[in-house]
Write a structure and sequence with these properties.
about 280 residues, alpha+beta, Jelly Rolls, four-stranded antiparallel beta sheet, 14 strands, about 20% strand
Length: about 280
């Protein structure tokens, strides 16, 4: 798409659909990773103790935000080369850099793969009212891009009606009025699918499309009413000064494998310590 048109649409609506962003062989590789995790999709939590525990698959950990969003495989960048490739995928990375603003450099705030079954959804959250520091959009005085967080949500399979698509209120990253769903207290609101909130639009994706959106837009997901599972991967990009959401330590193996450009995004600020502590480990 023409760059001016892309900028106009992203500014106006707060989201873009990047069609056919991901190649088939990469989709196959990500889907085959998911196929191998059937056991964790069935039983994401270790129930052997009184308090169900999150489970680890190597350096990847099971997680959920609430009661309805399925299972998040957090730190999915540790899942193999295909997930490393998504860190700076050419279909979106230059757009991400531009809108976060090159002066801010980049980091990944959170990266995960989500699998969500029937009845699953995400409640409505975010919007122009939000004081969350990474939900900025432009520099107020000069108008320069200053997007504090861009979500790249990758469809690993088609996501259509009944599949629990992401829902957005186009343009709501600029809203000054509170979205009516915010009149509901947080805890009961978390139980309500985002898709039932006022003015929400379902975003349908084909396998390989990526939904590219500011985290500041009012969004959530519709309830999945179809059988089977929705499969998405989600990388959230922010200025490098934003701390990682969960601060997973990079494994030595991944650190050794990453290209310098990818390492800079995953571990953007080198640690400083006194020289006597910089001695090579033997
Ligand atoms: O699961 C979805 O469709 C929405 C995920 C979401 O809330 C986000 O990407 O910030
Ligand atoms: Fe969200």
């Amino acid at each position: 798409m023409d760059e001016k048109l892309t900028d106009y649409l992203f500014d106006l609506r707060g989201f873009l659909v990047l069609e056919a962003a991901i190649e088939q062989q990469d989709l196959d590789a990500m889907n085959s990773w998911v196929d191998d995790q059937a056991e964790y999709v069935e039983q994401p939590w270790d129930a052997s103790s009184d308090e169900p525990q999150r489970r680890w698959i190597g350096h990847i950990e099971t997680h959920r935000y609430g009661n309805h969003d399925g299972v998040n495989f957090q730190n999915i960048v540790e899942g193999g080369p295909v997930f490393e490739k998504m860190i700076d995928h050419p279909a979106w990375i230059e757009l991400v850099r531009k809108y976060v603003n090159p002066i801010n450099r980049l980091s990944i705030h959170e990266n995960l793969l989500n699998v969500r079954g029937r009845g699953g959804h995400i409640y409505m959250h975010s919007g122009g009212h939000s004081p969350i520091c990474y939900q900025t959009f432009r520099q107020r005085n000069t108008g320069e891009w200053a997007v504090g967080q861009i979500n790249v949500l990758m469809a690993l399979e088609d996501i259509g009606p009944g599949d629990g698509p992401t829902v957005v209120v186009p343009g709501s990253h600029k809203a000054t009025e509170f979205h009516p769903r915010l009149d509901v207290e947080l805890e009961p609101r978390r139980e309500m699918p985002g898709g039932t909130a006022f003015a929400m639009e379902e975003v349908y994706l084909k396998a390989g499309d990526a939904l590219f959106f500011t985290d500041g837009i009012s969004h959530g997901s519709a309830e999945r009413t179809n059988d089977g599972h929705r499969r998405t991967a989600l990388y959230r990009y922010s200025p490098r000064y934003i701390r990682s959401r969960f601060n997973y330590a990079l494994s030595d193996a991944l650190r050794a494998r990453l290209t310098p450009a990818r390492l800079e995004i995953l571990d953007p600020i080198e640690q400083r310590r006194p020289p006597e502590l910089n001695m090579e480990r033997t």
